[in-house]
Design a protein that fits this description.
Layout (H helix, E strand, L loop, with lengths): L1 E2 L5 H14 L4 E5 L9 H10 L7 E5 L16 H18 L4 E5 L2 H5 L5 H9 L6 E4 L6 H6 L4 E2 L20
Parallel strand pairs: 1-6, 2-3, 2-4, 4-5
Length: about 170
């Protein structure tokens, strides 16, 4: 788990996914806040790699509207319902041992907002079969998530250009 207010949580998780990919792991990425309209750099890289002969594909699922603070329906999409459906799909895949590596990006937010039940998450993760790896990202990880995780890293912000009003930078923030 990568949590905290600092930059680099998703970047670190995608670095782990790249290592897993290199070992031919089956990978499922579930982005709980990112909009399907967003074209994130990591997805583009994995799509390019999957186009190489003999390379595995990475399954990609986006269930959000684009920003962690948007919690209302937009374009007919209920983000709470999308998050619940996404978690149900992750649970199904864990039970079936569909992937070797799961990246649950921005997963702490739907838990914090009460859209996904923390007891269900902890039970599912603790009792998943096999040797599946689950990496989660997001600020304010629930203490119970931290307790059941094998690895937890907290990213602490000391300074960020956005604090000075600078906008996100192509190739840096996306």
């Amino acid at each position: 788990m990568f949590t905290g207010d600092g930059k680099g949580k998703s970047t670190a998780a995608f670095g782990m996914a790249l290592r897993a990919y290199n070992q031919k792991f089956s990978i499922g990425v579930f982005q709980f806040v990112k909009s399907p309209k967003w074209k994130v750099g990591e997805e583009a890289v994995f799509t390019t790699l999957a186009g190489l002969e003999g390379a595995p594909a990475v399954e990609w699922h986006k269930m959000g509207q684009g920003w962690s603070w948007i919690k209302k329906k937009s374009d007919g999409i209920d983000p709470a319902e999308a998050a619940k459906q996404g978690w149900d799909e992750v649970k199904r895949r864990l039970a079936n041992e569909t992937h070797d590596f799961y990246l649950l990006d921005e997963f702490t937010y739907p838990i914090e907002w009460g859209w996904i039940d923390i007891d269900d998450v902890c039970h599912t993760l603790t009792h998943r079969p096999g040797t599946q790896h689950v990496v989660m990202t997001g600020r304010r990880a629930h203490p119970r998530l931290i307790e059941v995780a094998d690895l937890v890293t907290e990213m602490r912000k000391i300074k960020h250009p956005m604090d000075e009003g600078r906008k996100g930078q192509k190739g840096i923030e996306w």
